[in-house]
Structure formats: structure tokens, C-alpha cells
Write a structure and sequence with these properties.
Layout (H helix, E strand, L loop, with lengths): L2 H25 L3 H4 L19 H19 L11
Helix pairs in contact: 1-3
Length: about 80
Amino acid sequence: MNDDEHLRRELRSAREELVRKRARQSDGVPSAESRLPLMPERDEAFLRLALMSVEDLETHIDRLERDLADLEDGIDRPDVELE
């Protein structure tokens, strides 16, 4: 799997987790219960997303969207110094 595909999968999983958490908040479910990664439809590769708060998920989604846009614009691995 390439970086682009991995980012897209993680972004999709993060958005799904954010929807779950927002739905639980509107139903009045305590936040501690909404953090348990027990639902079978979660992507096992991204279970750590279930432990994030709504605010952390929103920030993470923003970062993933930026990273994906950078890849699409040809900016690959900005954290690696140019030689």
C-alpha cells in the first residue's frame, strides 16, 4: 500500500470515528464509554482513533487532509531533509 492509499484509509476511518463520537455526544453517552474500541466495524489498523477525543480527531483529520493535499501536489515527505 502506498502513502496516498494509507492516508485515504486513515482519513476515512478518522471521519467515521468522529461521526460515531459526535452521535454519542448528542445521545448523552458519557465520553469514557465512547472511547472504547469495541465496535466491529472499526478498521483494526486504526483502533487508536477510538481513543482520541472529538477535538483530537478534528485536528488529526485536518493534518491528514493537508498531508494528502501535499502528496497530490507532489510534495512528498516534507520531514526529510534535502541532500
